[in-house]
Amino acid sequence: MDDLKKAAQVGFASEFSFYLKAHNFHWNVEGADFLEYHDLFGKIYEEVYGAIDDFAEKIRSLDAYVPASYTAFSMISQIADENAVPSKDGMVAELLVDNEKMIKVLKLVYDLAENYGEVGLSNFLAERIDAHRKHGWMLRSSLK
User: What is the pLDDT of residues 23-43, one digit of tens each?
Assistant: First the structure.
Protein backbone atom coordinates (compact mmCIF):
# COMPACT_ATOMS: atom_id res chain seq x y z
CA MET A 1 0.00 0.00 0.00
CA ASP A 2 2.97 2.33 0.53
CA ASP A 3 3.65 2.22 -3.21
CA LEU A 4 0.12 3.48 -3.89
CA LYS A 5 0.48 6.27 -1.33
CA LYS A 6 3.78 7.44 -2.82
CA ALA A 7 2.48 7.22 -6.38
CA ALA A 8 -0.62 9.20 -5.42
CA GLN A 9 1.58 11.89 -3.87
CA VAL A 10 3.63 12.08 -7.08
CA GLY A 11 0.41 12.27 -9.08
CA PHE A 12 -0.90 15.06 -6.90
CA ALA A 13 2.33 17.07 -7.05
CA SER A 14 2.43 16.63 -10.81
CA GLU A 15 -1.22 17.65 -11.20
CA PHE A 16 -0.68 20.77 -9.09
CA SER A 17 2.45 21.63 -11.09
CA PHE A 18 0.53 21.13 -14.33
CA TYR A 19 -2.19 23.46 -13.04
CA LEU A 20 0.39 26.09 -12.13
CA LYS A 21 2.06 25.91 -15.54
CA ALA A 22 -1.27 26.26 -17.36
CA HIS A 23 -2.11 29.24 -15.15
CA ASN A 24 1.32 30.75 -15.88
CA PHE A 25 0.69 30.43 -19.62
CA HIS A 26 -2.81 31.89 -19.21
CA TRP A 27 -1.31 34.99 -17.62
CA ASN A 28 1.67 35.38 -19.95
CA VAL A 29 0.51 34.39 -23.43
CA GLU A 30 0.86 37.12 -26.07
CA GLY A 31 0.11 37.60 -29.74
CA ALA A 32 -2.57 38.50 -32.23
CA ASP A 33 -4.71 35.55 -31.07
CA PHE A 34 -4.04 36.26 -27.39
CA LEU A 35 -7.66 35.94 -26.30
CA GLU A 36 -8.11 32.51 -27.91
CA TYR A 37 -5.07 31.08 -26.09
CA HIS A 38 -5.72 33.00 -22.89
CA ASP A 39 -9.14 31.33 -22.84
CA LEU A 40 -7.78 27.88 -23.76
CA PHE A 41 -5.19 27.94 -20.98
CA GLY A 42 -7.85 29.34 -18.64
CA LYS A 43 -10.23 26.45 -19.34
CA ILE A 44 -7.45 23.95 -18.74
CA TYR A 45 -6.14 25.43 -15.49
CA GLU A 46 -9.65 25.94 -14.09
CA GLU A 47 -10.62 22.34 -14.82
CA VAL A 48 -7.43 20.96 -13.27
CA TYR A 49 -7.63 23.25 -10.25
CA GLY A 50 -11.21 22.10 -9.71
CA ALA A 51 -9.91 18.58 -9.04
CA ILE A 52 -7.04 19.49 -6.70
CA ASP A 53 -8.99 19.42 -3.43
CA ASP A 54 -10.67 16.10 -4.26
CA PHE A 55 -7.28 14.64 -5.15
CA ALA A 56 -5.85 15.78 -1.81
CA GLU A 57 -8.77 14.27 0.07
CA LYS A 58 -8.34 10.95 -1.75
CA ILE A 59 -4.70 10.88 -0.59
CA ARG A 60 -5.72 11.64 3.00
CA SER A 61 -8.29 8.83 2.84
CA LEU A 62 -5.32 6.50 2.23
CA ASP A 63 -3.87 7.72 5.54
CA ALA A 64 -1.08 9.51 3.69
CA TYR A 65 -0.09 13.15 3.78
CA VAL A 66 -0.52 15.50 0.86
CA PRO A 67 2.61 17.23 -0.44
CA ALA A 68 1.82 20.91 -0.08
CA SER A 69 4.90 23.01 -0.65
CA TYR A 70 6.81 24.14 -3.70
CA THR A 71 9.84 22.31 -2.32
CA ALA A 72 7.90 19.05 -2.10
CA PHE A 73 6.40 19.60 -5.55
CA SER A 74 9.80 20.27 -7.10
CA MET A 75 11.20 17.09 -5.56
CA ILE A 76 8.51 14.67 -6.76
CA SER A 77 6.54 16.29 -9.58
CA GLN A 78 6.95 14.85 -13.05
CA ILE A 79 6.13 18.28 -14.52
CA ALA A 80 9.13 20.60 -14.76
CA ASP A 81 8.92 24.29 -13.92
CA GLU A 82 8.92 26.81 -16.72
CA ASN A 83 10.79 29.95 -15.74
CA ALA A 84 10.93 31.49 -19.21
CA VAL A 85 8.02 32.85 -21.21
CA PRO A 86 7.80 30.67 -24.33
CA SER A 87 6.04 31.74 -27.51
CA LYS A 88 2.35 30.90 -27.78
CA ASP A 89 3.12 27.80 -29.86
CA GLY A 90 5.89 26.90 -27.42
CA MET A 91 3.42 27.12 -24.55
CA VAL A 92 0.93 24.87 -26.32
CA ALA A 93 3.61 22.33 -27.28
CA GLU A 94 5.07 22.25 -23.75
CA LEU A 95 1.68 21.87 -22.11
CA LEU A 96 0.83 19.08 -24.57
CA VAL A 97 3.99 17.15 -23.63
CA ASP A 98 3.23 17.69 -19.94
CA ASN A 99 -0.35 16.61 -20.46
CA GLU A 100 0.87 13.31 -21.92
CA LYS A 101 3.09 12.90 -18.84
CA MET A 102 0.06 13.50 -16.65
CA ILE A 103 -1.89 10.76 -18.39
CA LYS A 104 0.98 8.31 -17.83
CA VAL A 105 1.40 9.28 -14.17
CA LEU A 106 -2.32 9.10 -13.48
CA LYS A 107 -2.57 5.73 -15.26
CA LEU A 108 0.20 4.34 -13.05
CA VAL A 109 -1.62 5.50 -9.91
CA TYR A 110 -4.90 4.19 -11.32
CA ASP A 111 -3.41 0.73 -11.87
CA LEU A 112 -2.09 0.64 -8.31
CA ALA A 113 -5.44 1.81 -6.92
CA GLU A 114 -7.18 -0.96 -8.87
CA ASN A 115 -4.70 -3.54 -7.54
CA TYR A 116 -5.48 -2.49 -3.96
CA GLY A 117 -9.24 -2.33 -4.52
CA GLU A 118 -9.35 1.42 -3.89
CA VAL A 119 -12.30 1.92 -6.22
CA GLY A 120 -13.08 5.47 -5.11
CA LEU A 121 -9.57 6.56 -5.95
CA SER A 122 -9.47 4.60 -9.20
CA ASN A 123 -12.81 6.10 -10.29
CA PHE A 124 -11.50 9.59 -9.52
CA LEU A 125 -8.30 8.88 -11.47
CA ALA A 126 -10.23 7.51 -14.45
CA GLU A 127 -12.10 10.83 -14.61
CA ARG A 128 -8.80 12.74 -14.37
CA ILE A 129 -7.35 10.69 -17.21
CA ASP A 130 -10.42 11.43 -19.35
CA ALA A 131 -10.12 15.14 -18.55
CA HIS A 132 -6.47 15.15 -19.58
CA ARG A 133 -7.30 13.33 -22.80
CA LYS A 134 -9.71 16.16 -23.60
CA HIS A 135 -7.03 18.73 -22.78
CA GLY A 136 -4.68 16.87 -25.11
CA TRP A 137 -7.19 16.98 -27.93
CA MET A 138 -7.62 20.75 -27.50
CA LEU A 139 -3.88 21.37 -27.32
CA ARG A 140 -3.09 19.15 -30.33
CA SER A 141 -5.83 20.84 -32.36
CA SER A 142 -4.38 24.25 -31.49
CA LEU A 143 -1.01 23.31 -33.00
CA LYS A 144 -2.47 22.48 -36.45
Answer: 999 999 999 999 999 999 999
Q: What pTM does this model have? A: 0.97
> What digits encode the pLDDT tens for the residues 46-63?
999 999 999 999 999 999
Contact 26, 38 (CB under 8 A): yes
Domain spanning 2-142, CATH architecture: Up-down Bundle (1.20)
Helices 34-61, 2-28: crossing angle, 10 deg rounding = 160
Given a contact cutoff of 8 angstroms between Cβ atoms, the answer to whether 11 and 105 are in contact is: yes
Classify burial at 19, counting beta carbons within 10 Å of its beta carbon; exposed 0-12, middle 13-18, buried 19 or more.
buried
